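Hi L., both proteins are below.
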Amino acid sequence: MTTQSKVLSDPAVFEAEQALVAPPEGVADIRLGLFSFAHLHASSYAHYVSQMPGVALAGVYDDDLERGRRAADTYDIPYFEQAERLLAEELDGAVICSENAAHAPLALQAAGHVRSILCEKPIATTVSDGQAMIDRCRETGTQLQIAFPMRFSPPVMELKRKLDTGILGEMYSVKCTNHGSMPGGWFADPKLAGGGAVIDHTVHVIDLLRWLWNTEVEEVYAEVGHELLHPGLGIDDVGLLSFRLTNGVFGTLDTSWSRPPSYPTWGDVKLDILGEQGMICVDAFEQNLQVSSDKAGKTSWVHWGSSGDEGLMADFVAMIRTGREASISGEDGQRALEVALAAYESARRAEPVRLSP
């Protein structure tokens, strides 16, 4: 197991990293800029960062004036109408949560102006844009990290520890689901999102499998449905992938926007892993309390376990402070994107698609 995997597998490593390089009390040694609140995760990231000692939010840029000013008011930080003006604020890091199609333009603009970039998944909407981001960050000495918070989910981290011990022996198969509610807005715009439910959810799970076994997807077959659950949506809302990993494991992934608005939370991430010594089943969002609220009008799940988003942001800040490499690299993001795009290609051709090693 690599050093980076050890960092991600043990929460104590995060605490040790933070304590080792923690700034004097009351001193902000890390300045972060927030670039767009288009993505739903942006508010969560900002919430956790705003509570971290030694970290200051220098401001927010958003091309949506109302959305940007609302975020600035929420976190009591300046709003910038132009990205270059926020980049001029001597930032250490940029957190990009724009529409998927804007990831590449913002990352290319930020590279060289900041030490590190955290970019929401998927890395981009095309392989060429993803590669341009990786190349530009490498040329400028900018660390590029992709936001895959599921690596920091406590149940998933425990799964990683178990698998690293070889507890299941020879691995046979993995059955995965990543269901969610239809997010609406730009997520249903092919030009801005690059695809619907398949690209939205495939990258999360494929990244987990690559990380769990240090393996790659070598072949994928997919069936993708458009407007099957949401008539008139204009984009794919369901998908079923079958794939083979280079370590010999066969897998399936049910990815869809199938959860109704009344569902207790946005969706799920589940992994059922079968090996010669048995099976491990993981529900990444099972740590919750059920709260029935007349005000909310439904029963909701309130999560009591550690947050994957919090772990992701702690890791990003620790990376900046220590100067180490990104735990989840641009190449990781690119590999996950390639599988999602191969799934779309497979559905168009109605045949399996092999991926480059």
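That was the first. Here is the second:
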Amino acid sequence: MIYSQDTAQQTAKSLLQINAIKLNPKNPFTWASGWRSPIYCDNRVVLSYPDTRSFLAQKIAEQAQQLYNKDYVVAGVATGAIGIGVLVADILNAPFIYVRPRPKSHGRQNQIEGQLKSDQKVLVIEDLISTGKSSLNAVNALKKAGVEVLGMLGLFDYGFDLARENFKAEKIQLYTLSDYNNLIIEAEQSNYIKAEEISLLKSWRVSPSKWQPY
């Protein structure tokens, strides 16, 4: 869920302005999963824009301060959330670690990089939530390390029902700065897309795995 309506609109506007999010309902993108999609999101682009990255990191840090107590480690989900996670940890003056998708095949075979003790609490930072599979993979790696995962804060959420079910099953609280619904509102208000394309964007959200533009 989003934490603040004002922040959700500001975040959507910022991500559109820097082309971290691109919308093209009539000439859709193809995801690695094979899904046809009118939206492509690469929030790593945020790191190239100092004002935008500072704004987003500050908003996530404010959420963290309001939702949780102080003594926790900030964990970024590799690779997309490492950069923004470091910025958030710096604002909070908190330790930082990051979690790989899987353990390394060499060396110490770490999946979690950084200093972490089993009695610590961890706040996970994510850049993008789709189905939640990769995000929750990081959460489960942390749980196996014996730490308490407080929750997850992210930049953007597609709002898939499957993701909500997955997070609910794992009993993980998720808040994001913005989501797909707020993105559509901002795209329409700013004339980023044509009015007749709104219905295509909304129809994708209903059944993304089976969606076709025409």
